[in-house]
Amino acid sequence: MIAHFPILVIVVLLVAAAIVPLVGRINRTASWLTACAGCLASFLMAVSILSTVLDSGRISYWLGNWAPPFGIEYAYDPLNAFVLVLVSFVAFMVAVYARDSLEKELDPHRITPFYAVYMLFVAGLMGMVATADLFNLYVFLEITSIAGYVLIAVGRKRESLMASFTYLVMGTIAATFVLLGIGYLYMVTGTLNMADLARLLPDLYHSKVVLTAFAFFTVGLTIKIALFPLHNWLPNAYAFAPSVTSTIMAATATKVGAYALIRVMFTVFQPEFEITVVHVTQVLLFLATIAILAGSILAVAQTDIKKMLAYSSIGQIGYIVLGVALMNHLGMIGSIMHILNHALMKGGLFLVVGAIVYRHGFTHIQDFVGLGRKMPFTMAAFTIGALSMIGVPLTVGFVSKWYLALASLDAGMWYFVPVLLISSLITAVYFWRVIDNIYFKKTEKEEPATGIQEAPIGMLVPTFVLALLCIVFGIFASFPISVAEQAATLLLMR
Predict the structure, then answer these.
(1) Does some domain include residue 387?
(2) Is residue 143 one of the residues assigned to a domain?
(3) pLDDT of 275-313, one tens digit each?
(4) Sequence-ordered list of residues with C-beta below 8 angstroms from that of 430, at least 6 positions apart, any chain
(5) CA of 370: how far to CAs of 101, 386, 442, in Å?
(6) Which has fewest Cβ within 10 Å: 322, 338, 436, 473?
(7) Which residues contact 67 (CB under 8 A, 6 or more apart)?
(8) Number of domains the chain contains
(9) pTM to 2 decimals?
């Protein structure tokens, strides 16, 4: 059984997606338990895979025992095993949280189908991370995208339909670009296996077909991760979707897209190609800088907490791309660490917002006055996430920003350090507005004493777990850093 974990880690989610509607006929609790069990089983298998990779090296699993490049291969190294654990863990936490949240935000007849589509969404993400076949990557990308459109559109707000449609249009364009890139590479190499492509492509780096394929991949995947200025689908998708959808998409979807971009740039192609042939690093550095600053500035202008966090995510994607584009060991460590850190920070913050919606039904920042007294534990989790987003020492946000600053100095590009500092200061500004309302402002008129109005324990525990991990991995960062170092070494040594 353990030998088949590399495929079962995905199959268990697909099986759960099929079972959820059946058990949902009994009651909604059964469908929720099935979703939680599927996510938990997938997480435990992902942990086993990461442990095996760290102990024994790369895992190669051949579907149907067909050897690559003719068969489909699932391959695991420190990078994707690390991302696999992250995605499955966050998916499990959000699934536990979802029961109470969905009962509040969705119509009853939509809850069981939501769990089924949620499992497909997570399965698609896990498949994108696991596969070593480019066309298989596209298939899982489409599974994730279609499920994502549904998860956004299912909300009660009319705006959620428009947000889903916008995402559908942009997502279709992105998927088309990725598919064209795959087709062009297959046309000149006759293979879809990533390792085989890495072996054959160096002799073809100056081919116009290969250059076009790389351009399609880059544009398609940067749309998927919402890199500025290709970010227009993201703010409304996060703001008008149900809280569970906002959380899982913000914490995992763009991170898996960033992983796919890294995988294509450093496994299918080689660093020398990006530096000496297409010179894409300068473009990515420029776009990352604009994203970091523009995302932060746009977040300041928002009055809705969900939109504020959405625009903040655009800036955070810039951090990940900056580390990749610096093309050095420290930068890659910082980028991989920020994939972890942002998933924990933003996932926890969106869970807090969902708890506020559950208990009070609002997302406007000016309505947060006095929430520190009404929801002390939830607001404590929000404060931890906010401090981490700012990059306060002893939080995970500081770790990745520190590595990105060191990478900038190591690359002789010191001018990115002020960019990181300015972004952190702007982040402090827009989070201080919220914290000021929560703890320090008083309402103009007397409110009746209502006591503590915390979210249910099923929502509070996952929220606090993610918040506490922002501190744990900020203080005891050696393990994730060691994994990121191994992954960075493997990516850059090619």
Answers:
(1) yes
(2) no
(3) 888 888 888 899 999 999 998 899 888 888 888 998 988
(4) 296, 299, 300, 302, 308, 312
(5) 22, 18, 7
(6) 436
(7) none
(8) 1
(9) 0.91
